[in-house]
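From: lab user (bench 3)
To: helpdesk
Subject: output format question, protein + glutamic acid

Hello, I'm new to running complex predictions and I'm not sure whether the block I got back is the full result or only part of it. Here's what I submitted:
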Amino acid sequence: MTVRVRIAPSPTGNLHIGTARTAVFNWLFARHHGGKFILRIEDTDLTRSRPEYTQNILDGLSWLGLDWDEGPIFQSKRLELYERATQTLLDNGLAYLCYSTEAELDEMRAAQKARKQAPRYDNRHRNLTPEQRAAFEAEGRRPVIRFKIDDDREIVWNDLVRGKMTWKGSDLGGDMVIARASEDNAIGQPLYNLAVVVDDIDMQISHVIRGEDHIANTAKQILLYEAMGATVPEFAHTPLILNTEGRKLSKRDGVTSISEFQQLGYTSEAMVNYMTLLGWSPPDSTQEIFTLDEAAKQFGFERVNKAGAKFDWAKLDWLNGQYLHAKPVPELLEQLIPLWQEAGYEFDPASDRVWLELLTDVLRESLTRLPDAVDMSKMFFTDLVDFTDEARERIAVEGAPAVLQAFYDQLGDYEQLSADDAQQLVKQVTKAQNVKKGLIMRSLRAALTGDVNGPDLIQSWVILHLQGRDRLRLQQALNQIK
Ligand code: GLU
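Helpdesk reply: Thanks, we reran it on our side. This is the complete output you should expect:
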């Protein structure tokens, strides 16, 4: 069997992390089996669907590296297909016109509630006579189309994640609406369950992989497959992503869309790696860092959990750090340049390339998220620095002014300064001034950077020297002490 899977987002919001994680699992499964991964945009809800959301979804999937083989296929361009399928169901007596008004349905549900019953449609228009129908039409009522669901049906499937699943027809809420009412007596807009099944049949989807919030839909959809005489695909319902309190991750948890994670400075590699681990673990469960391709080789549903997957920010941060620390300097620099530009730092990406690369290399080890680099590197983008109070103290302690003066004087001889030169100079001054190396390093850092902590001092110094800023800083520090 050829594996054909799909991700079918509705463009009613930005690409959600839950949808993206489902996309990851579909992609991994397709690649593992050498199958096809299809992208379908479920935009039949015309009032809530927006082109900018479609764009956000496409951009997000591309950024994550989840390339698709077919699509994007838009449901809004396929309405005829759904109409035809609905008409066939009507012709075969498997669906019917229902004229119930909203008010009647509300009243029906209220009565069920009073009897402590679960709300459901009571199938009241299943067997209308032609006369009854004509009377409703004459009243100006416009019908929806309902698909018959028999209460005594039992629906069983073998879920690839959850094992044997059994649903009773009576738990599906009565005959379900598959098409909305239409003013001109045609078949109205298709509803989710109908459109999905028509498309999954048409696109020969072999495995439907989606969130466990769709389990009840699956039971309904299996009935539609049968009604349309089609082969029922395999189903895999993936666990939900939970917040730190163990509840379903929602808008209230703040960051939930992929573009927001991107803006926060997470790398695409860390995001997909992390999402893969949200519900799946590789056979060697100590392995936490892998590419999509590596995960695809090992992916299978036997290692997907049934239980919800808790979102763990600390783990995502850790993974992101790992990817940033391992990123080649030129690649990382390309990602930092726009952030520095946005922060208003002045530099020329071309002519400053040498020290920009050195700076990137110095910062790399300390980054958890990309924007961390902005604050950390501030002092490399200005001639003079603001001293923190602690730094001010350090350049004034006994012995420090003489040390700084010695560096200032000696540096006059250096046109270029390598890390080795800088180390040598430190040794020389330590000896000449007869002070502890600790004092030297502390006062030097405070003078050069205006701070008491920061990236590697020698490397930072080399960069400042390349920029022609190190003597200037020492001069500035000496002026402060006077
Ligand atoms: N449009 C549905 C959603 O975004 C698709 C669900 C499915 O995969 O069938 O939840």
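A quick orientation on your result: The radius of gyration is 32 Å. Let us know if anything else is unclear.
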